[in-house]
Amino acid sequence: MSTCKLIAFTLLLALIAAPSIASAQAPSRAGNLTASTQPLPHTDGGPITKIETPTAGEQPGEDRWSALVEEFNAREKTILDTLSDARLPTSERVALLERLDLERLDFCQDFETMDSLGTTLFISTAVPTWKAIWYSSKENEQGNRPLFIPELITLVEHCNYSRGSLYRAAFLLEYMYWNRMIDRTGMEVADALKYRDHFYELEFLEIARDKIAWARGLDHRPPRTSGNFFEAPEMSLAFFLKLFGNVTTSFPPRRRRAYMAMIETINLRKGSQLMFGHDIATMLERPEDLELMSRYYAYLLKVEQQRKLQGVEHGGWHTLVKMAGGDRARAVRVITLLASLRGWVLEELSDALIAKNKLTPEMLRAFYSGANTYFIMHRINERSAKNGDDPYTLRYHFFHPPNFESTDWKAYHWYANAHLGCRLSQKGMDRRSATLATRRLAQAYEALTLNLAIPTKRAMGEEPRARAIIEGWEDVDMNAAGGNYGWKICN
Amino acid sequence: MSPKTNHFLALLSALLCFALPTMAMADEPLHEGFMVRAGSGTQGRHRLESSVDINLLPLPGGGRLNGTHIALSLGTDDAFDSVGLDRAYIALLRWPHMRLLGVKRNLDEGMPLGVELGGLSMPLALVGKKESRNWIIAHVGFDGNFNWYREQFTAVEDAMGLGLSLHARLDQQVDIFERLSLRAWQKACYSAIFGLFGDTPGIGVRQQVMLHGALGLYLDITREPLYRLIPRTDPVTGEVTYRKSVNQGPRWRWMIVNASGHWQPLGYVTGRDKLLFLTTGIERRF
Which residues share a beta bridge with B72? Predict the structure, then answer.
C-alpha cells in the first residue's frame, strides 16, 4: 500500500511540476534564442537590423515599373477573358443575386488587415459563406453542383472584382480542395483549381499594382500589414513550440539543440504571417534567387499549356535544379522562401521593403511569381500525378526528386522542411536530430491545426475526426522526409 | 414507487432519450453524430442508450462549434422494478484529442456523479490512408476528474476525490465487405485518486487500473453509394481514368452487435471488476 501511495504521489507531483518546470526554464531559453540579446553560434533568431540589397540607395527607373504594370495588365486581361467565358448567363445571374444575401455574407467587403485574412481561415467566417452559396447551388443526379464555380465568378464580377470577393471565392474553392470535395463542382480537380488560382491571381495583381503605386509615390490603398516585418519581436506561439520541444526532444541534448535551432530558423514574428526572416533577408541580397523564381514560374505556365511536359516524371524538380545551376539547396530555398508562403511574401515583404525604400521591380516580380507558384504547383501536381496501387490514391512525383513520390499533395510541406533540414545541416546538427526536429514540429503543428480541421470538416459535411488525424500524420511523414532530404543535400 | 409508476417513468425516459437525443459513454470519440442502442449486461441490467454530438458553443464571428456531447443510458433489471439513469456523460467539448468540462455518472464504476475537468491526448495514426475507411489510430493522454463513489452503487467504499488519469487507447475500423465494417477499441487507464475514503481520517490515495474495450459490427444502410468516382485525364495519352473517394457525410448504420466491457485488474474504488455488455442499435454518424 505504501508503495502504491508513493507511485501515486510521484505521479501527482510530476503532473503538477511539469508545467512549472517548463515555464521556469522557457523564458531563459527564449532569451538565449534572441540573437539581439545573446547570439548563439547561429544567428537566425530575433529582429533583423540590417538589410543589404543590391540596389540599396538606387531608385528604380519609372520605365521598369511601367513595364511591370503593363505585364500585369496584360495578364489580368487574359484571366478576365477566361472567367467571363465561364460565368452564368444574364437571366440566371439575376436569380442568383436575389437568392443570396451578399451583404449579410459580407462577400464583397475588403479585408482591412492581414489578420482578417487569417481569421477567414476560421470556421466562423469562411464556412457559413461556403454553406450559403454551396447549398443554394443546384445539385445534379451525381450529387455534384456544376453551377457552383460559374456562380462564384458571377458573384465576384458583381462585387467588381474587389480584393475581398476574390479572396473569398478563391478560399472557398481552396477549402473544398483541402477537404477533397472540389470534384463535387463537376470538374476534374485540376480544372476546378484553375478557377481558384485565377481568383487568387487577380487578387495578387491588384496587390502588386497597389505596391507599385506606393513605391512610385502615387495614390495607393492603406497597407494591410504593419510594414515592420524585419523589426517585429518574436511571436508568442514560439514559446509554446519551444516548450513542446523541451518536453519531447530533451534527451539527448543534441536533439534539443537541433529543435531549438530549427525554431530559430523559422523565426516566427509577432503580427506576421511570414517565416524564415533571416533567410529571406539573406535571399534579398541574391538577385539570382529572385530571378530564378520568376523564370521558374514562367516555366510552370508553359507546363500548364503543354500537357506533354506534365507527363515527364519528376519534370518540375529536374527543371528547377537545372535552372538553379545544379544547386539543389538553392532550388529548395527559392521555393520555400518565395513560393511556399502563399501570397504573404508579396504583400508583407513588399510593405516592409517599401517602408525602407528598398523594393525593386525585380523583387516584386519574384514575389508575385512565388505567390502564384504555390497555387500552380497544386494544379500541375494533380494533372501529372500517377494512379496509386490502390483504387483511392494518387502518387505525386512532379515536384519531387527521383526516388521520392508521395500520396500527399502538399509539396510545399516537403520543400519547407527540406530547407529546414539543409539549414540544420549547415549548423552542424546530425541527420537524426535534424529529421526528428522536423518531425516533432510537424506533430505540434498538426495537433494544433486539428482544432481548425475538426470543426471546418464537420461544418462542410465531411468526416471530421479520424480523417483529420490520418491526414495530419501523412503530413508529418512528408515533413520528416523533406527534413531528411534537405539535411543530405547540404551535408 | 409502484411498478406502474416505474414503467411510466421508464417509458417517459426512453422517449426523452430518443427525443433529446443522447448517448451512453464517450466510447467512440472518433465517430460523431447520433446513436441509439439497447442491450443487456452481465451485471443483470438491461439498457437503452443514446448519444448525440451537437454544435453548441457559439463562435465570435457567428456559427457554432461542433463537439458538445450528450450521452444517457437508462437501465432496469429483469423485473423492471429498478429503473434509473445508469450512465450519463455530458461534455461541453469532446474531440478525439481534447475534452473540456463534463458531468458524468457511471454506476458500473460505482460513481453516481463525477466532474470531468478536462483532458488532452496525442493522436497517432498507425495505419490508414486519407481515402480509405480502414485505419488504426492510437491516443496517449491524460485527464483530470473530481468523482464521488458510493457503496450503494457497487463502490468498495464511499469516497470523493480528485482523480488524475493516464490513458492509452487504440481505435480500429476495418471494412469486411464494402458496407459491412468492424470497429473496435481498447483503452488502458491508470488513475490515482486523492481524497476522502470511507471512515479513514484525512486525505488518502487510491489507485485504479481499468481496461476497457469494445467490438462492434456495423452495416451501412444509407441509400447514397459509399464511394464516388473522380475522373482524371492522363496528361500524355488523354485517357480518362477514375479514382475512388469516400462519400463522407453522416451515414445510417445498423449496429448489428456491439460487445463492450471492462476489467479492473487493480482497483480500490470500484467493486464490479468485470463487466460485459451486448447491444444492438442504429446510428447516424460520420
Answer: B50, B88
